Amino acid sequence: MNTITIILSTARDNNFTSRIADIVRAHVAGKGFDVQFVDIKDFLFGKTMTLADNPKEVALWAEIVAKSDGVIFVAPEYNHTYPGELKILLDSLTQEYAGKPAGIVSVSAGDYAGVRMVDALKILLHTLGFRLANRSVNVGNVQTDINEGRITKHLNTVLEEMKDLQK
Ligand SMILES: Cc1cc2nc3c(=O)[nH]c(=O)nc-3n(C[C@H](O)[C@H](O)[C@H](O)COP(=O)(O)O)c2cc1C
């Protein structure tokens, strides 16, 4: 696994998830992986689009996916699920994701640390053909309590699983 794509999965203004995505990005790069960082605010299609519609934004996303040996989603929990903009982005492709290892980092303001979002996102990623790491990184109380050591420790276990999942 050489190239890992990290997706900051919310475009909400002043979101806290970007702080966690920055920690994830620095840690993954520090472990020697090539990192492609996607800030979803640069991929806001505004409506469902696929490659069949032939928009250049989807073609660019397809290029990023093609170059990815693995994908880490850093996503907040919104109403017990993942942000709508992530659904629209992921829906734009299908077989391009097949067999790619994926990991999830959940973020929330509360004690449950986004675990309901993890379950919802796992269903979508499984449907799209990703190979999912069983464990995830779960960051709760993000507005008051970011524990970088804990995040990177759990991220290491996810990265190990992703390596094992690679074809
Ligand atoms: C539309 C919306 C829905 C939310 N729903 C939840 C939720 O279901 N569970 C939760 O723990 N936090 C929820 N939150 C709070 C987020 O966890 C909080 O905003 C946190 O900072 C992570 O999101 P952010 O990256 O947008 O800041 C919600 C926030 C928004 C904006």
Unreliable spans: none
Distinct small-molecule ligands in the complex: flavin mononucleotide
Helix and strand succession?
Answer: EHEHEHEHEEH
Overall number of structural domains: 1
CATH architecture, by name, is: 3-Layer(aba) Sandwich
Mean pLDDT score, rounded? 97
Euclidean distance between termini CA atoms:
9 Å
Helix/strand/pairing class, anyone?
A: alpha/beta
- How many beta-strand segments? 6
Which shape, going by the Cα principal axes?
A: globular
Biggest sheet architecture: 6 strands, parallel
Summarize the amount of helix as a percent range.
25-40%
Oligomer: single chain
Write down the Rg.
15 Å
Strand percentage, roughly?
Answer: 15-25%
Report the total helices.
Answer: 5
CATH homology group = Flavodoxin domain
Can you identify the CATH class?
Answer: Alpha Beta
> In CATH terms, what is the fold-level topology?
Rossmann fold
